[in-house]
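Tutorial, part two.
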Amino acid sequence: MGPLLSAWLSACTAGDDEPPRAKDLAGEEPCRTVQQPTEVPVEIRESSGVAVSRRYPGVFWTHNDSGNHPELFAIDSAGQLLARVRVTGARNQDWEDIALGPCPAGDCLYIGDIGGSRGKDEPLEIYRVPEPDPGASATARAERFRVPFPDGSRDAEALFVLPSGELYIITKEEQPALYRYPLPLRSRRTVALERVRRVDLGTEERVTGADATPDGRWVAVRTNSSLMLYRTETLLQGSGSAPIRMDLTPLGEIQGEGVAIASDGTVVLTSEGGSRRVPGTIARLACALR
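Running the prediction step on this input gives:
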């Protein structure tokens, strides 16, 4: 058990009843629920993505989606608001996912303005900022990467970054596809994505989020009610072992959206609230990565 997971587990209330467990298709339990969906502040009604800080233990970064301010929210495992940080030089047309990855400054947050609320022929935009201090009011000025799809307009909500700096997007379609930004990343330029392959999820559900472990060995992909954990080479190449699959419906999320994964198998899930009067939620799983 990694130190991060140990810290999170210790934050759970001792003596609580055993929470429900996510199950795979065979009825086994590859993931254990360590925190049931917990409300986040009402300001975060539409948590579309989540990232786990690597600089500040116990801090999670999330954001709202289209029509909201270009800002990040730092929360803790109990859903308490730690900070509200404006992303300098950015706009939020349809922010759908966030990921932590390498950059010249060290660790950066990559924010995907990649949703279907953008104009049909308008390129997607990825913003990159050095991970801010949770006590900051604004980030450093964001770098912007314009990334059109090479084969026409697509809707997407899932973004992940590997330790190499490779950036990937998975579309939100009946037949989702995986796309890659060709390295090196070039800010203030329009660079077409490269199609890698079609991704057969084995379900008609639509992809709403993705994340890679810091060591790059695993990628988590989620829908509103399912979670798939892929070995990275399997996802990129389309061959190898089948993903670990979990049914998330026992969690009772209102509208499951975001996912983040740590190298020790800790999975963080966020959900939208579903209405202006209902806040989103954060939940956590401990998964055995075989």
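Helices lie at 3-11, 232-237. In part three we will examine how such features are distributed along the chain.
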